[in-house]
Specification:
Length: 276
């Protein structure tokens, strides 16, 4: 893996080069093993938190981990194009617009002992901006090359905080064209419901049951790219113990195995339908 500037990453994408890179600000990774009409993204995978902010933050490392999406990059790492955040959403949230990317409060709890300085905020927002420069360059290249693109926007959620039965998988579709893409949405929901998991974990998949797909990542791509579908895909954190911070590697592996075959097949069907 190379450390590359934002400008160099964009040049490599425009030249259709294959590469693995970490951004020079260490905010995200991107790998392109082949130029295909689909992308996997894990924007909340990161846990890094700038040391200068530690003393100001009221949330513990566990508090932050609990609200992040650990292992989501690991679940899709074998696919040809993967972009993944390295920084915690508690520093800046890639799934919020720039004006709201830095939290004041997080899940009902004040985040900072004292307000961040403008310099501290600007350092974080520059990383947010750089990430979206790469997203824009990547989707531009894929739409130009293939005529259409599909993005699997991978997230996880804390199922134990709900006081009702919730699905293993949730698709958030409120900000995409449901009429145009209804077959692809239903096919993806069905594919997810068929992934076999260990430990007797049931696999259910629903649309807009727990989350509706209101994230900025989805909205940014949908607004700027008329021929790209973003599927906000949330898995319940059945792959870990939310309360003791223990990851279950065998469950992560089963999810990764299920996605390894179903995801490219779904993307191929999408391309065959919408490339014209």
């Amino acid at each position: 893996m190379q450390k590359l500037s934002i400008e160099d990453i964009i040049l490599k994408i425009e030249a259709e080069e294959l590469f693995h890179a970490v951004s020079s600000d260490y905010a995200f990774t991107i790998k392109i093993d082949d130029y295909v009409p689909y992308v996997c993204a894990a924007v909340h995978n990161g846990h890094q938190f700038r040391k200068e902010l530690w003393a100001k933050c009221l949330h513990t490392a566990y508090d932050r981990w609990y609200e992040e999406d650990p292992e989501t990059e690991n679940m899709v790492k074998h696919h040809p194009i993967v972009i993944s955040g390295l920084d915690s959403r508690f520093e800046y949230d890639l799934n919020r617009d720039p004006d709201n990317a830095i939290y004041d409060d997080a899940w009902g709890k004040k985040l900072w002992k004292e307000p961040l300085s403008e310099d501290e905020k600007s350092r974080s927002l520059e990383k947010h901006q750089n990430f979206y420069k790469i997203v824009h360059a990547l989707i531009t290249a894929l739409e130009q090359k293939f005529g259409c693109c599909i993005v699997y926007d991978m997230h996880s959620y804390n199922w134990k905080r709900w006081d009702r039965e919730v699905p293993t998988w949730n698709l958030g579709t409120s900000n995409i064209d449901n009429e145009r893409y209804k077959n692809s949405i239903e096919d993806w929901r069905k594919d997810l419901s068929e992934i076999k998991l260990p430990k007797g974990i049931p696999t259910t998949a629903k649309v807009n049951d727990t989350f509706q797909g209101n994230g900025y990542f989805l909205k940014f791509i949908t607004t700027n790219f008329p021929h790209t579908l973003v599927l906000a895909t949330e898995v319940a954190k059945i792959y870990c113990d939310e309360e003791s911070q223990v990851i279950y590697p065998e469950v992560v592996s089963a999810i990764r195995k299920g996605l390894r075959t179903r995801l490219p097949e779904h993307a191929s069907n999408f391309y065959n339908i919408y490339s014209n």
